Structure formats: C-alpha cells, structure tokens
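Quick start: what a row looks like.
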Amino acid sequence: MAFFHARTALYALLALVTITVFTGQHLVPPMDRDESRFAQASRQMLKSGDYVTIRFQDELRAKKPAGIYWVQSASAALLGEEDIASYRFVNLLALLASIFMLYHIGLQLYAPAIALAASAAFASGFLVLAEAHLAKTDTVLMLVVLVQQWALMRIYLDREKATVKPSKHWIFFWIALAAGILVKGPIAPAIAILTITALVIWHRGAGWIRPLRLGRGLILVALITLPWAVLVTAATDGAFLDIAVNADFLAKVQSGQESHGAPPLTYLALFGVLLWPASLLLPSALLHIKAMLAQDSTRFLLAWLVPFWLTIELIPTKLPHYPLPVVPAAILLLLWSVDRLVTLSPLRQKFYLAGQYVLLALGFGLVAAVIAVAVMFGGQSMRLAVVLAVFTSLLVGLASWQGHRWIQTGEYLHLMALFIAGILVHFAIFAGVVPQLSRIHMADVVAQNLASSGRQPAAIAAAGYHEPSLVFLLGRDVLLVDSREAALFLAEAPDGVALVEARQQAAFLDMARRLKLRLTVPEQLSGYNMSRGQDVLILIYRREMFDATSDNE
C-alpha cells in the first residue's frame, strides 16, 4: 500500500514539474548565447536536411556532436520550428525521465517514501530546473549518464551474488555511453572511467567489470558513433573534429575559456545554491561519510560523484552546469542520510544545527538576488517583475518554514513539503520573474518592435549587436555586419532595416553621408547585454521613402 501511495505521489510530482517547466519554457524568450546557437543550428539542420554538418548561419559550429541537434530538430519538426519552446521540450522529457529513473534507483537504497523524497529533492534543485528551461545539451546529457551509471551500478551490486542470471545491463551501459558521446563528447565516458577506476582501486581488483563485456561494448559504441564521425570528417575535411578537440575541449582544459575561468573549490562554494533546497541535508550527509564507505550502494554513488567533481574543480574553465551529470548521485547521497541517527555531543549538535540553518537560509540570498535582478533589469516591466520577486520571497519563506519544521521534528511530510515549495519557488522565478526582465531580452524587444511597426523589412542587418538570439528571432538571413557595411546594406536594400548599436552609430552615419543616404529618425531601444556585461542602446534605421513628386534627390 505504501508503495502504491509513493507511486501515486511520484506521478503527482511529475505533473507538477511538467507544469512548472513547460510554462517557463514557453514564457522565457530565447537566451544568449549557447541556447540560441543550439536552437538556430537545429532549425537550420531541419530546414536544410543536412543532419551531418552543424552550422550557425554559414559558420561551421563544431562545439558539440550532432546528437543534441538531432533530437531538437525532431522536436521542432513535431511542434513547430519558430518557437523556442519546441527546442526546449526535449529537456522537459529528459528531466521527467531522469526523475523517474532516480526514483527507481532510490527504491534500491531506501524505503519508497525516501525514494520519493529523493526524486522531489532532485526535481526542486536550482541547477536542475534552470538547465531544464534551456535548449542546451546538459539535461539530456544528465539523463544518458543516469542510465549509464544505473546499469554500471547494477553490475557492481550483483558482483558477489552466488547465482546471477546473465545480465543485459551491459547493453544499457554501452548504448547510454554512446548516446552521451553523441550529445557531449567525452563527458559520459570520463564519468564511467572515473567511477570504475575509483572502485577498482577500492577493491584492488577489476574482476567485477567482466560482465560489462568490454570487447562487445566497444564494438557497439563504434557502430553507434563512428558513422556520424566519419561522415562529418569527410564533409568538413577534418575541420569539425579539429575545432571540437583543439579549439573547444583542450582550450577549456588548459585555461579559462571565454573569460569563464575560476579557481578550484568554486563548485564546492556554490553547492548550497546549486542544489537548494536539498543542500539543507549536507551536514547530515557529512556525518555519515564513514557509513557510506561501508555500503556497496553508497560507495558506488561516492565513486560516481567525487572523482568527477574533483576533476571539474581542477579544470580552469568553470560554468555552472558542469556538475549536472553527477547531481543525481549527490541527491541520492543526501537523502540516504535522512533517516539515520547519529549521537552528537552538545557542542557538535549546535554546529550541526547551525550548518543546516545556514544552508536553509541560502534561499533568502537567492530571493535577494532575484529582487535585485528584477529592479536592475525589469525595464518597462520592472513593477511586475518586483511584485513577482516579492511573491517568490513568500514561497521561500514557506519552504524555509517547512525546512525548520523538518529540522525540529524529523517528520517526512515536512521534508516533502520543503521540496514541493522549492519547485514552486523556481516556478515563480522562471515562469514569473525571468520573462519580465525586458532589459536582458533585447532581441525579443527588437523583434516585437519590428513586428508591430507595420513596415515589415525586406531584409535586416545588425551592426554591433550580434547576439545569437537576434538571429533566432529574426531569421538566419539577418546580416551580422560592421557599421560601414550596415550603411552599404541600406544603400542596396531600400526596404531594409539597419540595427545599429550606439557605439557603432558615428561610423555608420559617416558612411551614410558618403553614400548620400536619407535616413528616418531612428527608434531607440535600450537594455542590457548579459553576454558582454554592459548596457546597450540599439538604434533602428530605415531609408526615407522616396517621394516621386519631390524635387529633392
């Protein structure tokens, strides 16, 4: 009966997550830069019918393998290629599948109620929900890694059973690993290798990995991944793999790529925020490290989590989503400690409780950041953004109260209420506050302005503001040019529009005077470029309409 109730509650949780993410995916405009690049490249793949090479406009995009573009293109083909939500929908499905997978892994470790709480904790995590709203690789990667590690865990846990039926888990492992390669290159194999290495060192032997069937597995991976690799190498004369390895992967490993460098322990410092509100359970988990090492299941989770976490801490390039493939392991370890009692001295008890309350209070730090963002970037919608941010604070208060009650009583229902409130907090942020930040959604403001002007431009050129969201919203044919080229464009396209960033205006007008262009008084749209971290003013220039009755030239 308890299992039945847990399963029913799981479906309710999945429904709540669906509403939360689906709504946010439809309300948040395309974000810069990675999301819009992925979505635009997927749309071009769909329109061109070329499912081998990946391009953003006419530029070869050799950042990631083709897997994510295939699934995004398929989603757009079904749901419509113009709406950014069509490309994000893949991540909603990946998140729901991940929650379902984590619940079933949790059933091998806990009672059904705690497995459900682990699923809710995972689904309420700030990093998990934030990434699920964006048309990027990482939520899909998290799912395939979760499947890969589940299969590896089953093989590991079955290693000492006297009678074990021939396992098919190795097939799931290698297919998931191959899918991970096609989604994000070396990350999935790296996690598998690090996990296996850690366990081999612990047991001082590798006999337990025989059921993986290494030979057959590598052949299966080759059959899945090599056809595309061979085709893209031939189609680009080797340029794709060269750029992907040398200009992308090695650049991130060797130095802080694109100003994304940060020191070691950055992710540890951000742990409380990235996994909030589940991070409340960290002090409890730390008290049980020795017990975790004594059990096969939790030892496996540590081998999944710790080596990869240490690796990304040491890599100079730091991006918030890098820990995502090991977040399921972290969540499972946090929840494992929930119903385990530890006797502490009065002094240690005080430190323990203080740690819990500090981590719980991070939610109010998150609220303060949301309110500050609403004030700074709300623009014309600032009042509504602030109201929604204040509403978010009320939900954080609800979550914090439930967290306090759990700390005081240890009752399961308060813990579940904490995680449900956490989901509602993120619903208020991503479906409420973020869509109202008009100052950071400049491309959306420009697109709405052009659509409402009554004069649809035959062609568009942009000088100075070259964010990918502009290309996604205005179409691949928008020309990304410099100021002088923008003036030349208007000379050749009388019905066109030039979007000129204010820093480019002087050079643009100088060239326009040389070409004797007569321009309309420009419309001005102000905002903030998040990618560059600076204010931006976009001026919309058009040619004056030629009057045949006028004597003016």
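That is the whole record. The chain has a mean pLDDT of 91. Residues 208 and 288 are 26 Å apart (CA to CA).
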